[in-house]
Amino acid sequence: MKSAVETLNPTRVRLTVEVPFEELKASLDAAYKKINQQVTVKGFRQGKIPARVIDQRFGRGAVLEEAVNDALPKFYTEAVNEAELNPLGQPEVDITELKDGELLSFTAEVDIRPALEIPDYSGIEVTVDAVEVTDEDIEKSVEQLRERFATTSPVERAAAEGDIVTVDLEAKVDGEVLEDGVASDVDYTIGSGQLLEGIDDAVTGLEAGGSATFTSELKGGSAEGKEAEISVTVKAVKARELPELDDEFAQMASEFDTLDELKADSVKRLERMKKFDQATQAQEKVLEELLKLVEVPMPEKLLADEVNTRKHNLEHHQLGQIGMNLEKYLEMQGKTAEEFDAELKEQSEKGIKTQFVLDEIVNKEKVSVGQDELTEHLMRRAQSSGMAPDQFAQAVVEQGQVPMLVGEVARGKALATVVEAATVKDSNGEVVNLEDEDETEAATETVEAAEGTEA
């Protein structure tokens, strides 16, 4: 076999391959055997039809077509390996010559990973938020815990914001009650915004037994998106009562004996959270600066495929699961279709560029992935997908996705390497030491977000 490579542009090549006919022998034998199992000829047992009879009855062309289809992937792969190419996606193959008994010639155009030059990234400098836990942060944290231990009790007064009302609802469109437009004994917290637009104003000021009507756009059901007249009847009003902030509350809500100990623990927890957020911010900013340093030619077909995949996933998976279409989503986002497409293309370009650059650093720095690192990543992926770890691992193996997970971890480690080499300062001008953080998994999550491959 002979092959030659023609560079069409920095991200696409054309392979020209010539195969002597004798190298098709194995594929020809396989083609005759396959046809033998599929056809019957009077006077011959199935599977025992001579090749000359198959040629006569079904045509030599059918055999050659079967043999070439079988052989092309092998010869294409050999040509790719010989040229040391990194193809992206499937090739566009064109058979240019097929002389029976003499020669097979074909061309294959395919996108390839562009050759990248990774400059010295040790000069990257970024500024992140300082880790500062304020009194307001502590009060908010304790208040959230207090909210979790709130109790409710019936009250004989008009409903007000923060109260929980038990209501019956009935929705009409064009004067007709919808089959799925009636609900009873629905508990709703006034001001939460978790039901229908307009219900807060309707029920505020009503006592048990009071009714009101309002107009609202339905968020789901058979008349989703239509304006409906909603009748609401308040059946009960309950007030939320928060526990007193004292040592007794600390003992009830935590393992601590005093409120001061509870607040001290809140400070430690908030510091850990802010340090993690700081590390994530550092990784995101360092990645942005790294991408600015590297010129990456963009494979147009790969980019188009990535844009289409992201749009399909959004329309048919993310939005489909909540019963929303793209048009409604764009309306809620306040975006035109053109603006959405432009943003999607920009995100896709960033995702591809991130993968190319970090993969190059993986090779340059000889980054390897240990079994423990892969297992930890697999466990996190399983958790975020809602699957059991063993079930997720089985699916990954069956679908041949192990190399993909290894690549994700490797790119996370590559980013952690770049962050370690960069200078990170906080908003107070102090150098931030991120070495004590669990950098690899956190960096992997940052990479996934940039590539758009979050679970």
Note down, in words, how this protein is organized.
The chain starts with a strand and ends with a helix. Helices cover 49% and strands 22% of the residues. The radius of gyration is 32 Å and the shape is extended. It is an alpha+beta fold and 455 residues long. Strands 6, 7, 8, 9 and 10 form a five-stranded antiparallel β-sheet that branches. Helix 10 (337-364) packs across helix 13 and helix 11 packs across helix 12. Residues 433-455 are annotated as: Disordered. Residues 433-442 have a biased composition (Acidic residues). Residues 162-209 form the PPIase FKBP-type domain. GO terms for molecular function: peptidyl-prolyl cis-trans isomerase activity. This is Trigger factor.
Q: Outline of this structure?
A:
By secondary structure, this protein is an alpha+beta fold. The chain contains 14 helices and eleven strands. It has helices at residues 25-38, 51-58, 60-82, 135-148, 199-203, 247-253, 259-293, 300-321, 326-333, 337-364, 371-385, 389-398, 402-421, 439-451; strands at 2-9, 12-20, 87-99, 103-112, 125-128, 151-154, 164-173, 176-189, 211-217, 227-241, 423-426.
Element layout with pairings:
Layout: E1 2-9, E2 12-20, H1 25-38, H2 51-58, H3 60-82, E3 87-99, E4 103-112, E5 125-128, H4 135-148, E6 151-154, E7 164-173, E8 176-189, H5 199-203, E9 211-217, E10 227-241, H6 247-253, H7 259-293, H8 300-321, H9 326-333, H10 337-364, H11 371-385, H12 389-398, H13 402-421, E11 423-426, H14 439-451
Parallel strand pairs: 5-11
Antiparallel strand pairs: 1-2, 2-4, 3-4, 6-10, 7-8, 7-10, 9-10
Helix pairs in contact: 1-3, 2-3, 4-7, 6-7, 7-13, 7-14, 8-10, 10-13, 10-14, 11-12, 13-14
Subcellular location: Cytoplasm
Region (Disordered): 433-455
EC number: 5.2.1.8
